[in-house]
Write a structure and sequence with these properties.
245 residues; mainly alpha; 7 helices; disordered N terminus
Length: 245
């Protein structure tokens, strides 16, 4: 289309000088007797086509929570599990550093009154250095974790989208609305289970991908309980949150 437009523009530009010369040169007067009469129909110009009136067609609307569908597929679950597994060593490292910081805080609080100002300053400097390292490492891990999650989601979503298009075309839908989040243009949709194709698309993609569902996670073992003396007081510790998605 752009090529045709460029050629048409060049052609018009090339004809402009000729048209200008033709308009500037006086046309020779023709004898009145040689001018044939103009029919009234020809003077009116060619007949204009009737305007096209838009026609409404029956609508078959489908709703899908696309983001949830991508994550719910077998491949989506496997991709997210792989990302979480990748960051398990980093999570353990952050937890160990946090435990070390808690220990240093308790030691500083329980320090004897005979502790010199230099010793206290050295402990506080060590504690501050480790706290800054924890904050920096946690932020770096969160940023990298989110980037890997986004990359994994993007790869799966492209393939799910192709299956989605095939599904709606095969089933004769004329309109598809994404209800994944409040940012989508859908202001309201009636609760109609027959219009929600999220689960159907997930099942269709699982069949096309051939990926088996992930094995169920083993239930976490209950921690062993030991009797404690009545005088003991549990200490609260702070555990860093895992990198948010």
């Amino acid at each position: 289309m752009k090529l045709k437009f460029a050629l048409l523009t060049a052609l018009v530009a090339g004809l402009l000088p000729v048209a200008a010369i033709a308009q500037a040169a006086p046309a020779p007067a023709a004898p009145a007797a040689q001018v044939p009469p103009v029919p009234s129909s020809a003077a009116a110009g060619p007949a204009q086509p009737a305007p096209v009136v838009p026609q409404a067609y029956p609508a078959k609307i489908a709703l899908i929570a696309f983001q949830q569908a991508v994550i719910a597929t077998n491949e989506g679950q496997r991709a997210l599990a792989d990302v979480r597994k990748k960051y398990e060593p980093k999570q353990s490292q952050l937890e160990s550093l946090n435990t070390e910081i808690d220990t240093l805080k308790k030691q500083l609080q329980a320090a004897p009154a005979t502790q010199t100002d230099a010793e206290r300053a050295a402990r506080m400097k060590t504690l501050d250095t480790k706290q800054k390292q924890l904050d920096r490492d946690t932020e770096d891990a969160r940023t990298a974790y989110q980037a890997d999650l986004q990359d994994a989601y993007g790869k799966v979503s492209q393939k799910v989208y192709q299956v989605l298009l095939t599904y709606v075309q095969t089933n004769g839908y004329t309109l598809l609305l994404d209800v994944s989040s409040e940012q989508t243009p859908v202001m309201w949709a009636a609760k109609n289970p027959s219009a929600d194709i999220t689960e159907a698309v997930v099942n269709a993609y699982n069949v096309s991908s051939g990926i088996a569902p992930p094995p169920p996670e083993a239930p976490a073992a209950a921690p062993a309980t030991h009797p404690k003396p009545a005088t003991s007081t549990p200490h609260s510790t702070t555990t860093p949150k895992p990198p948010s998605q």
